[in-house]
Amino acid sequence: MAPQMDDAALDMLEASLRKTMLAVSGPDLDAALTEMGWAEMLSDAAESAVPLVFRLLGETGSHASVLVDVVLHATGNTIGDTVELPLPYAGNAWVVWDRISPQSVDPTLGGLPLRREEEGYPIRLAEARVAVGWWLVGSARAMLNLARRHALDRVQFGKPIASFQAVRHRLAETLVAIEGAEATLSLPGVDNPDLTALLAKAAAGKAALTAARNCQQVLGGIGFTEEHDLQLHVKRALVLDGLLGSSRELTRRAGAGLRARGSAPRLAHL
Q: At 219, which helix (H) or strand (E)?
């Protein structure tokens, strides 16, 4: 098992990554992460680096092609290998993510060109699902922060709307969903890695969709405009939820598997 970074090292790395992601995105961020030692982080401390990097991608709204690297690492390949990686998308179709493809992409959706491929390509999905889950959690936190700031600044009837019970309930529901998803993503998953990752991805997708719905309501009309940053995170959440199975699809799949098995394994010791 790869070692985890200590708290001091993680704090320093987070500050550096956040500053970098707020400054550059896309191919420039790919290059910056390479210079910062992303390959070494993934090889030597994946359990710490993957949650941090993908959560920050969500929080900052930046994008990089690092999910391909996670899958390469999980399948025993080396980062930078020129191999095509078909991965399942929503609706049981398959796609290939090509980091050097000249295809045009929408950078707000992650900057990942997609090409459909035939079904049936075997690949390990647990690590990729956990990474996408942290990306979703980061996006959800970004939306919550936008809504919270708006609720504190927006005044109606002589007081901030943050004091209104309906607004507080929506923000609280969102926070609970995010915290629950983070707790699920943090489960070890040693005994049942595929099931743990599947449920964690489902929880993260549900949390992001809950954040999108509630934060849109808190922001009101301004949240529908392209001038506001919320729409960027909503777009990303909708796409990432579908990637590697939506929260609804994965929940059904987990239930069907447990029903066929006839028992449920213990995933967490409380």
A: helix 193-219
Residue 19 C-alpha from the chain's centroid: 19
Backbone angles phi, psi at 222, to 5 degrees: -60, -30
CA distance 195 to 217: 33
Q: Which residues pair with 125 in a beta bridge?
A: none
Chain centroid, CA 2 distance in Å: 21
Q: Cα dist. 209→44, 66, 142, 225 in Å?
A: 33, 23, 13, 18
Tokens of 146: 């936008």
- pTM attached to this predicted model: 0.83
25-43 burial, b for 16+ CB within 10 Å, e for fewer? beeebbebbeeeebbebbe
With vertex at residue 136, the alpha carbon angle to CA 109 and CA 31, rounded to the nearest 5 degrees, is 55
Q: Which residue has the tokens 């923000």?
A: 171
Record the tokens describing residue 9, joined without a space: 């090292």
pLDDT digits (tens, 9 = 90+) for 228-250: 999 999 999 999 999 888 999 99
57-93 in b/e form (b: 16+ CB < 10 A) is bbbbbbbbbbbbbbbbbbeeeebeeeeebbbbbbeee
- The residues, ordered by sequence, that sit 6+ positions from 119 with a Cβ below 8 Å of its Cβ are 92, 93, 94
